[in-house]
Amino acid sequence: MTAPALTPELEARLLDTAVTAARAATDHACRNRHRRLEVAQGFAHDVKLSLDTECQKIAIEHILERFPDHAILAEESADTATATSPPPGFEWIIDPIDGTVNFSHALPFWCCSIAVRLAGRSVAGAVHAADFNELYTASQSGPALCNGKPLHVSDVPDLAHSLVLTGLDQKHNPRGERYGVFHAIADAIQKTRIIGVAALDLCRVAAGQAEGYFESGIYTWDIAAAGLIVERAGGRTETLAALGPHRWCFLATNGHMHDPLRKVVVEALGRG
Ligand code: LIP
Q: Which of 96, 161, 184, 227 has the fewest CB atoms within 10 Å of its CB?
């Protein structure tokens, strides 16, 4: 089956739909903030909120109203046990609340991330960080924007002057390698930060506020929209390993210090 044609008009409609759906999801989360502790499922280092599922439903309704025959891959309903290939046509990738733990603590570092892929490649994406009033967008042939203003990655050329956003994969990687990689990155650069919201971290790389982002294990819905935003802002993204269904070891940078950071990460991962 051949992939459907992506005209400029369709690209614009897809982006507009990603924005509308992301805004609708965050609007629901904000209006129901008083319910932020309603837990659907608890884990040792993570949580699923009732609002995750509700916001996801709202986003899906907005998308299917406009594109009823498109496929959906969404965090709260995804099958993370069975390996599947992306469909040949359009597929929407939804993280209704990225940074759920932050949201549940009333920390403002959370967002809704929505991307649409064609044959497995992101062609449009929106990240809405409601508490910062920041809407990040990009499309395959359009610029990366924050609230309509162009984004560009930083010019910082080397590790010594770089700030890198990262995370600790506590849920899926209990063996301790995560601390080895963290130490290696921390020793090589100016500063690391763990903010706990991958999509927004990547948008901050696109905005030139951080030079890099690395996580040893992260899901497709955390990176599908913001990875495109980094690329359209002039940065570089790279999947270092496929870890299982929808899960990746992932690096994104301003491009200038990509190879040196990649070397640090790969060597540390190799040491286990
Ligand atoms: C979270 C990410 C965070 C990562 C966590 C988790 P969620 O997404 O954004 O950066 O370190 O492992 O995946 O679960 O809040 O949508």
A: 161
